[in-house]
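User: Show me a protein chain along with its predicted structure.
Assistant: Here is one chain, sequence first, then structure tokens.
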Amino acid sequence: MMVKQAPVGELVRGWRERRRRSQLDVSLAAGLSARHLSFIETGRANPSREMIERLCDELDVPLRERNDLYLSAGFAPVYAERPLADLGVARAAVDAVLTGHEPHPAMAVNVRWELIASNRSMQAFLAGLDERFLTPPVNVLRALLHPEGMARQVRNYQQWRTATLRRVRRQLERTAAAGLAELLKELESYPAPANQTQRDDTLPDNDFVMPIVLATDYGDLALHHALTVFGAARDVTLDEIAIETFFPADEHSAKLLRALAASQSAHDTSP
């Protein structure tokens, strides 16, 4: 069953209100009168392709949702959506970042935190999970926060859970991506893992970022992460890709990651 497309004016108004901007503010920035913008939002005027793009630029509308505005206004979608494998130099850039980040974990995810690609170190972290968390599409937040997933290893679970849910709420507010509201509701429903030893009061001495602390057979591993996105994307897939790279938060964790990588390499090369 086809979902009826909302009028383009309603979509424009929705994004303007989502960005908490007035008609006057947006109209001045986009180079049209407040009266014209009001007419567009109420359906009394139809925006041109150029006007839709100007409004979307000003309101920072993601490319997938821009296509919805074009369709609603009676135009063909502007932005293609290709698999990562077909993105040429962009795919090569993703691979370069992931491979170059060894021995530290790194992964590429989409707007819903579904795993698109990962390096060997990240694959090693996920390898011990139950198969239900590894069935594509793999959602890394579900795998991390579910009480039967990696959550059992997260020593500062409540602290990390709070920060993660805040990220999902911000992502939902920024993108309005389909499925994010459902994912947020699911993650919020997870109870804390049973029989977990918390250490929220003894995190590594780091005043700059809050790490995630994982219990391993070799001791606690503390990691903080950085986010990389593509600027000026012209493809929906590329617009939604984020590369998360993890770094050791202390010297013990740095040594542990190097040791784990060496052990994995030795295992891979053994006859």
